[in-house]
Amino acid sequence: MSGRWQWFHRLGSPKWFYEKTTRWLPWLVGAMALFLTVGVAWALLFLPPDYQQGHTSRILVVHVAVAGTSLSFFPLMAAAGTVTLVWRIKLADMVAKHAAPLGAWFTFLTLASGSIWGSVMWGTWWEWTDSRLVSMLFQLFLLLGVISLRTAIENAETAARACALLSIVGCINVVIIKYSVDWWNTLHQPSSPISMEVGNPNGPEFWVATLVMIVAVYLFLAVSLILATRNEILERENNAQWVRELVAQAR
Amino acid sequence: MIDGIQFNSLGEFLAMGGYAFNVWSVYALFAIFLTANLALPLRKRRLILRDQKRRLAALDAREESARDPADSAGWEVSMAGDEK
């Protein structure tokens, strides 16, 4: 194997991933806790009430952060799926396998928080003619589809490849979600332009709080996905010498 | 009170200007979402480690009994000898 590709395969080694993440996890968890605390405290206590929405704008900090992050699941699963299809690296498929249910949680919270906000601000919990709402619901169904596809196919390798293909195709829906508000705007508002002016509806007091929450939610995604992938490694590699040693040392 | 906090009392904070149900239910869902997706993988890790520890112990026990009994007896004798 040429030296240029060695790092790539080392990165795909479950043992390498496990050892690296053992060192990264405390930092990721610390950063996540910090950003979550600042983000939630800012959104709940310090954010001034919106001149039209009142205190419901506190919902949007969570909604926007979770919704935006939920769009990264299909690209992530498609990238991992491509690695699975082309290089057959096991680790990529382990990540993809656990990304799907986590993505479903993200998408569900996006829909629920949006609905709870909309029930008072739009006067309706749901609107079937709104393209943003419907395409987001479609993302939830696609993710549930990926999850059930994996359980439905008995052969693990075939299941991995089928899920990889569906994840790549599913990326089209992410583009539709992103631009739906500009293409067929009915109820859901397009993203507001960021303003540097304090007191503006999307002034720094709102968007910096949202940005802090976005970083917090991305860190949470990383921590949760790493924890699930490490479990998968312990299960799949349970006969490897290094896993046996690790199990023997565990309390 | 810390400067910049938008509420004058705890009651006002909990009331959220009349939107208590909406604000607090979203934050409750957010808390469940965060807790579940950290606690479930951690719980699963404990179960995996416990099961594999048992599996390894069972494997060791089987190897032990498969070994020549005279061999293990000899090992114990030499250990006892060291004690003296």
Brief overview:
By secondary structure, chain A is mainly alpha-helical.
Description:
The complex is a heterodimer of chains A (251) and B (84). With 251 residues, chain A is an all-alpha fold. Helix content of chain A is 78%, strand content 0%. Chain A has one domain. Chain A has helices spanning 3-11, 14-46, 57-70, 73-87, 90-121, 131-152, 156-183, 204-236, 241-249. In chain A, α2 runs antiparallel to α8, α4 (73-87) runs antiparallel to α5 (90-121) and α6 runs antiparallel to α7 (156-183). The two termini of chain A are 39 Å apart. The mean pLDDT of chain A is 92. Chain B has a domain at 28-83. Chain B starts with 9 loop residues before the first helix and ends with a helix. The model of chain B is unreliable at 76-84 (pLDDT under 50). Chain B is mainly α and 84 residues long. The radius of gyration of chain B is 30 Å and the shape is rod-shaped. Chain B has 3 helices and no strands. Chain B is 81% helix and 0% strand. The chains are: A mainly alpha (251), B mainly alpha (84). Chains A and B meet through α2, α3, α5, α8 and α9 of A and α2 of B.
